[in-house]
Design brief:
The chain is α+β, with helices and mostly antiparallel strands and 284 residues long. Helix 6 (186-196) crosses helix 11 and helix 7 runs antiparallel to helix 8. The chain has helices at 27-46, 60-63, 82-86, 104-114, 157-173, 186-196, 203-210, 213-227, 232-237, 241-244, 246-263, 268-272, and strands at 50-51, 57-59, 77-79, 95-99, 122-131, 143-152, 274-283. It has 2 domains: 27-182 and 266-283, Bira Bifunctional Protein, Domain 2 (BirA Bifunctional Protein, domain 2, 2-Layer Sandwich), CATH 3.30.930.10; 184-244, no CATH class. It has a 4-stranded mixed β-sheet. Strands 2-4-3 form a 3-stranded antiparallel β-sheet. The chain has 12 helices and 7 strands.
Length: 284
C-alpha cells in the first residue's frame, strides 16, 4: 500500500468577474461621477428641488400594473420565500417583489403613501440605480444610474417649463454646450395615430414603436407595427407630418389636440406628475 496521503479535491476557482451586464466602477470614475452629481444637485436645489429616495425593491403588483410599458418585461423578479414559495400555484405566483426598472413608478407610490407629510407642490430629485433584465451590449448595462426631477401637485404647463429650464441649466453646468432640447407631446402623437387610422385602443403600441425610430429606423418601426397586427393601411399612412399633411392639416391637428385636451379626464397622479429625466446612461 502507498504511504501517500489521499489526494484533496481542489475547489473550483472562483470567477471574480461581475455578472453579465454589471460592472465594477473604479475610484477615478466614481470621483468623476460624484463631481457630476454634485454639479447637478447644486443646480436643481437652486431651483427649489429636494432630494428623495425610494426603495430598490417594490411590490411586483406595483411594477407590473401597466405604467412601465415594455420595461415591465425586463423586471428582475424576487422569488417568494419559505411556505409562500412552496404554496405558489403557478409561474406567475412565484414572485412577490422586484427590482425597480425606473424611478417613475416608485415615485407614484411614494407620493401616494407620503402625500400628507410632503410639501405641496413637491419638487423632487431622485438619483439612484435601476435594473433591467435586458440583453447586455456595448454601452448598455443591466444596472445603471438614473437622475430624475419631477414636480407633483401642479397641473400648469409652467411646471413643464421649469423642468426643461432646470435640466438645460444642469447640462450647461456640466460643460455640455451644443445642446438640442426635443419636446414631444402625446396629444400630437395621438392626433397622428388617429389620422392614420390606427385603432384608438391600441395607440400605446404605436407610440412604443415610434419611440424606437432612431434605433431601428423606419423599416424596423414598420416591421414592429406589422408584428403587433396593426392595419396595413394605417401603417402605410404613417409618415412625417409635414410630408403627408401640409400646413392646413397641421392646423386641424392642433385644433383637434386642443379639443382632445379639453375633453380628456386625467387622474390626479397624471395631472400632478410633471417630469423630466437627465443622465440615464451612467452605469452603477
Amino acid at each position: 500500500m502507498s504511504d501517500r496521503p489521499p489526494a484533496v479535491a481542489r475547489e473550483p476557482k472562483l470567477d471574480t468577474t461581475p455578472p453579465r451586464g454589471m460592472r465594477d466602477v473604479l475610484p477615478d470614475e466614481v470621483e468623476v461621477r460624484d463631481r457630476a452629481q454634485a454639479t447637478i444637485l447644486d443646480v436643481y436645489r437652486r431651483h427649489g428641488f429636494q432630494r428623495i429616495e425610494t426603495p430598490a425593491v417594490e411590490n411586483i403588483q406595483l411594477l407590473t400594473r401597466g405604467e412601465g410599458g415594455e420595461n415591465e418585461k425586463l423586471i428582475f423578479k424576487i422569488l417568494k420565500r419559505g411556505e409562500k414559495l412552496t404554496a405558489a400555484q403557478n409561474a406567475d405566483d412565484l414572485a412577490d417583489l422586484g427590482l425597480r426598472f425606473d424611478l417613475t413608478v416608485p415615485l407614484a407610490r411614494y407620493y401616494a403613501n407620503n402625500h400628507g407629510r410632503l410639501p405641496q407642490p413637491l419638487k423632487a430629485i431622485q438619483i439612484g440605480p435601476v435594473w433591467r433584465a435586458e440583453r447586455p451590449q456595448h454601452g448598455r448595462f443591466r444596472q445603471f444610474t438614473q437622475c430624475d426631477i419631477d414636480i407633483l401637485g401642479v397641473s400648469s404647463e409652467i411646471a413643464e417649463i421649469e423642468l426643461i429650464l432646470a435640466t438645460a441649466e444642469a447640462l450647461l453646468a456640466l460643460g455640455l454646450t451644443d445642446l438640442t432640447i426635443r419636446i414631444n407631446d402625446r396629444r400630437i402623437l395621438a392626433a397622428i395615430a388617429r389620422h392614420c387610422g390606427f385603432a384608438e385602443g391600441r395607440f400605446d403600441s404605436v407610440f412604443i414603436a415610434l419611440d424606437k425610430l432612431d434605433k431601428i429606423d423606419k423599416a424596423g418601426v414598420v416591421k414592429e407595427l406589422e408584428a403587433e397586427g396593426h392595419a396595413p393601411k394605417a401603417i402605410g399612412e404613417l409618415r412625417p407630418p409635414a410630408a403627408v399633411f401640409g400646413s392646413r392639416s397641421i392646423r386641424r391637428w392642433s385644433a383637434g389636440c386642443r379639443t382632445t385636451r379639453a375633453r380628456s379626464s386625467r387622474s390626479a397622479t397624471r395631472t400632478a406628475h410633471r417630469r423630466s429625466r437627465v443622465a440615464a446612461a451612467t452605469t452603477a
